[in-house]
Write a structure and sequence with these properties.
With 355 residues, the protein is of the alpha/beta class. Helix content is 39%, strand content 17%. It contains 13 helices and 13 strands. A nine-stranded mixed beta sheet has the order 5-4-6-7-3-10-11-12-13, with helices on both faces. Strands 1-2 form a two-stranded antiparallel sheet. The protein starts with 15 loop residues before the first helix and ends in a 5-residue tail after the last strand. This is RecA family profile 1 domain-containing protein. It comes from Tetradesmus obliquus.
């Protein structure tokens, strides 16, 4: 919990309000103290002076005001619909993928790409960065695994726009620890809030968020790791909302391997070959067709991270095809399960579903 710090008044004396708050040691201790939620009973029992009552009242009011500024405001359904309709979209640059997202990534939101290794997560991040930069907008790319390839970004620029000047709008920041990422995000938020709105980035990309958070969570689910997961999600949401930009993050997946125990066919496909008569999972060898995708995988980082992204796409590369399937697993504006297929070559383009 945050600590309460004391400050001096201009005349050099201690601020009585902050001195009173300091006596609790932390915000958590203050909020769990009954004397400030039941002040009348406390004062009557202890016969405090009028001055003491004023200090306690002022301290309570000051802290409640700060907490109310941090608490999310209630918003009506009509206001949310109006916000969605007027929110700007930042497309990936793949028509089918942008279609299932109703235009692309929405400003003020977090979009997550989850998938196995070599499923195309970094490729889509590079394409999104190039597409946004080509429109003359700035992109901040946090590279946590040294996966950013300037050569590949240049290739995408030439294949899609026959121009490489837009690469100047992409700023790459290498972050190899979660603490370095949080410090960089804090610095970015401070600089952007004080700069001209036209100079602010339109997109932040973190590739990959799980590479930084998985080690601090560990197999023992350490408490400090969960705190860092929550703080990272909170900070990304705050930056997206306050600076009116889109945040794109990548995450790995956990679960059974492709075609193994419990594999299921994609929506709309005949899954009788992979499930029993009661709908249970099969225990045989791989039975998925070339157009089927394993949905037993789930995004990593646990339940605490699960609800932080506003939109989640799971990427799956089928072993019998060169194309990648993107499935909409989470969205606040569209029903789930929609799919888009794309191929990765010199450029990234729509592809037919394998037969």
């Amino acid at each position: 919990m945050p600590r309460i710090k004391t400050e001096e008044l201009p005349d050099g004396t201690a601020d009585p309000i902050k001195a009173h708050l300091r006596s609790y040691g932390s915000v958590e201790c203050y909020l769990t103290s009954t004397q400030d939620y039941l002040p009348a009973a406390f004062w009557a029992q202890n016969q405090q002076s009028i001055q003491g009552q004023d200090v306690t009242r002022a301290a309570h009011a000051a802290l409640m005001q700060q907490l109310q500024q941090q608490a999310p405001a209630a918003v009506s359904g009509a206001a949310l619909m109006a916000l969605i309709e007027f929110t700007r979209m930042l497309p990936f640059g793949v028509d089918g993928l942008d279609a299932i997202l109703m235009g692309g990534m929405r400003e003020t939101t977090i979009t997550e790409l989850a998938g196995e290794s070599c499923s195309g997560k970094t490729q889509l991040c590079l394409l999104a960065a190039v597409t946004t930069a080509h429109r003359g907008e700035r992109v901040v790319y946090f590279d946590t695994t040294n996966a950013f390839s300037a050569g590949r970004a240049r290739q995408l620029c030439m294949a899609n726009y026959n121009d490489t000047a837009c690469l100047g709008n992409i700023m790459v920041v290498a972050c190899h620890s979660i603490h370095a990422l949080l410090a960089s995000l804090d610095e970015l938020a401070a600089q952007a809030s004080s700069s001209d709105p036209g100079a602010r980035p339109s997109m932040i990309i973190v590739d990959s968020i799980s590479a930084l958070l998985s080690p601090v969570i560990g197999s023992t689910q350490h408490h400090q790791g969960h705190v860092l997961v929550a703080e990272t999600g909170r900070l990304l949401r705050h930056i997206a909302d306050s600076l009116k930009l889109a945040v794109l993050v990548t995450n790995h997946v956990v679960g059974s391997s492709y075609g193994g125990y419990g594999s299921r066919a994609a929506p709309g496909r005949d899954s009788t070959a992979t499930t029993g008569q009661q709908g249970g999972a099969a225990t045989g060898a791989a039975r998925l067709g070339p157009g089927d995708v394993n949905y037993n995988f789930k995004p990593a980082l646990g339940e605490q991270w699960r609800g932080l992204p506003h939109t989640r796409l799971q990427l799956s590369r089928t072993p019998a095809a060169d194309s990648v399937c993107a499935t909409l697993l989470a969205s606040s504006i569209k029903d789930l399960g929609h799919q888009a297929w794309f191929s990765i070559g010199e450029t990234i383009q729509d592809a037919e579903r394998p037969g």
